Amino acid sequence: MAAPRSRALWGCCGHGWWRAILASRLPVLRSSCPWGPLGVRLLSQEKQASETHFGFETVSEEEKGGKVYHVFQSVAKKYDVMNDMMSLGIHRIWKDLLLWKMHPFPGTQLLDVAGGTGDIAFRFLNYIQAQHRGRQKRQLRAQQNLSWEEIAKKYQNEEDSLGGSQVVICDINKEMLKVGKQKAQAQGYKAGLAWILGDAEELPFDDDKFDVYTIAFGIRNVTHIDRALQEAHRVLKPGGRFLCLEFSQVNNPLISRLYDLYSFQVIPVLGEVIAGDWKSYQYLVESIRKFPPQEEFKEMIEDAGFQKVSYESLTSGIVAIHSGFKL
Ligand SMILES: C[S@@+](CC[C@H](N)C(=O)[O-])C[C@H]1O[C@@H](n2cnc3c(N)ncnc32)[C@H](O)[C@@H]1O
């Protein structure tokens, strides 16, 4: 069951809890405020003045979305090449591990939120097709009397090879989706993909729709993480699984020191040289430091109503995969 709204508001991005309570009570106060319209206006201003962080900068909640949008609009074309350069290709292994953890089968319906240029979605389709081929081989081996035409036909139909699986890639940024669609076309992905423009905090999907929800390197960019988690819970079917791959807290002091040096001294320089954009990559490293560590994020996932929540730290905690179920 989803956490009650007041409880969820406690987790509101580190703001004073009293602000959250006042904000949530505004409609009631409007009708009964003892200080009249002025009091209501003051409370409204309080709500508007809610602050959050954009990297190390303090900004209003209203500002953050626009700033994050600008970052990804600016880096979209160079996003994939920068990922390879910055992580020396290791992001590919982390994403593969996410898929192995998910272990989807033909028929699985996946929602990949903040899906950007489609890395998780393409891996999902490859995984399903590999599963399907494995099954098919086993079945064909068991059926002795098929003609070669029948065998060839079984291998040809791409849609069949997904067994009804579909991945919906939902992202708030048009440019990221555009690059993703071009990549899909160039790499020959046709069936089983849908690209949807949407906000993780207000997903444009019905309740109880998906088997799996993934969000990879996306959730730290969202203004209200608690709302995104509640939305994840809402759109998953009972029994569905939440999986999040995100930067996390490094658990080895020596590696942490080296990682900090690399992050702050090298990554923005790479961003400037390759993408002509120092600021966006400065935001990237700062936003990683502002994201809650493994245990704290686990509690936030539990607060959203997920059960059997667990996590696995990878590469000394540089990233972690959190998992939870809607039961
Ligand atoms: C670092 S990229 C990750 C892309 C992809 N998941 C990957 O692993 O390569 C972060 C993505 O989050 C998206 N994003 C940021 N805020 C969002 C929101 N509120 N709702 C949906 N997507 C959001 C950005 O547009 C961007 O595409």
If helices are DSSP runs of H or I spanning 4 or more residues, what is the number of helices? 14
User: What's the arrangement of strands in the largest beta sheet?
Assistant: 5-4-3-6-7-9-8
For the sheet with most strands, the description reads: 7 strands, mixed
List the bound ligands.
S-adenosylmethionine
Our estimate of the beta-strand percent is 15-25%
Briefly note the structural class of the backbone. Answer: alpha/beta
Average pLDDT level:
85
Helix content percent band: 40-55%
Given as residue ranges, the uncertain stretches (5+ residues, pLDDT < 50) are: 1-47
Sketch the topology as an H/E string, one letter per element.
HHHHEEHHHEHHEHEEHEHHHEE
The best one-word shape is globular
The number of E-state strands comes to 9
Radius of gyration, taken over Cα atoms and rounded to an integer in Å: 22 Å
Q: Give the N-terminus to C-terminus distance in angstroms.
A: 8 Å
Describe the structure.
- Its main location: mitochondrion.
- Component of a multi-subunit COQ enzyme complex, composed of at least COQ3, COQ4, COQ5, COQ6, COQ7 and COQ9. Interacts with PYURF; the interaction is direct, stabilizes COQ5 protein and associates PYURF with COQ enzyme complex.
- It is an enzyme of class 2 (transferase).
- The protein has 327 residues and is an alpha/beta fold.
- The protein is 54% helix and 18% strand.
- The chain is built from 14 helices and nine strands.
- It has helices at residues 5-10, 17-24, 26-32, 36-48, 61-75, 79-87, 90-102, 119-142, 148-156, 174-187, 225-235, 253-275, 278-290, 294-303; strands spanning 51-54, 57-60, 109-113, 166-171, 193-197, 210-216, 236-247, 307-314, 319-325.
- The strands form two sheets. Strands 5-4-3-6-7-9-8 form a seven-stranded mixed beta sheet, sandwiched between helices. A two-stranded antiparallel ribbon has the order 1-2.
- Helix 2 crosses helix 4 (36-48), helix 7 (90-102) crosses helix 8 and helix 12 (253-275) packs antiparallel against helix 13 (278-290).
- The longest helix is centred in the middle third of the chain and has 24 residues, at 119-142.
- The termini are close together.
- Bound molecules: S-adenosylmethionine (SAM).
- S-adenosylmethionine is lined by residues 68, 72, 113-116, 119-120, 171-173, 176, 199-201, 216-218, 221-222.
